C-alpha cells in the first residue's frame, strides 16, 4: 500500500512540475561560468527536476546496496552463531559437578 501512495504522490509531483514548466516558456540567460546561454525556462526546470531525480535515485540505490551488504554480513554471523550453538548442544554436561561445586562454596 505504501508503494502505491508513493507512486501516486510521485505522479502528482511530476504533473505539477510539468504544468509549472509549460507555463514558464520565456527564454532566460544561464551562466555556466565559462559561457552564458539563452535557453527556455522550461528546459531549465525540467533539467533540474531530472538531475534531482537522478541524485535521489542514486542515493536510494547506494543505500539499498549498503543495507543488502549489512544483511548478508549479519546473516553469515547468525549462521556462524547457530553452528556454534549446535556444536555446544552435542557436548554432554555433567549436572553433578555443577551442583557439587556450588554447595561447597556456600
TrEMBL record:
UniProt-recorded name of the protein: Lipopolysaccharide assembly protein A domain-containing protein
Residue stretches spanning the membrane: 37-62
Domain of life: Bacteria
Domain Lipopolysaccharide assembly protein A positions: 24-82
Assigned keywords, A-Z: Cell membrane, Membrane, Transmembrane, Transmembrane helix
GO cellular component: plasma membrane
One Pfam family here: LapA_dom
Listed InterPro entries: LapA_dom
Organism: Paenibacillus riograndensis
Amino acid at each position: 500500500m505504501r508503494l502505491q501512495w508513493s507512486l501516486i504522490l510521485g505522479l502528482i509531483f511530476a504533473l505539477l512540475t510539468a504544468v509549472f514548466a509549460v507555463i514558464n516558456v520565456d527564454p532566460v540567460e544561464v551562466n555556466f561560468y565559462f559561457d552564458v546561454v539563452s535557453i527556455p525556462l522550461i528546459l531549465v526546470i525540467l533539467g533540474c527536476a531530472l538531475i534531482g531525480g537522478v541524485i535521489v535515485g542514486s542515493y536510494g540505490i547506494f543505500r539499498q546496496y549498503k543495507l543488502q551488504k549489512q544483511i548478508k554480513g549479519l546473516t553469515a554471523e547468525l549462521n556462524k552463531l547457530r553452528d556454534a550453538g549446535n556444536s555446544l548442544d552435542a557436548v554432554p554436561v555433567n549436572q553433578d559437578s555443577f551442583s557439587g561445586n556450588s554447595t561447597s562454596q556456600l
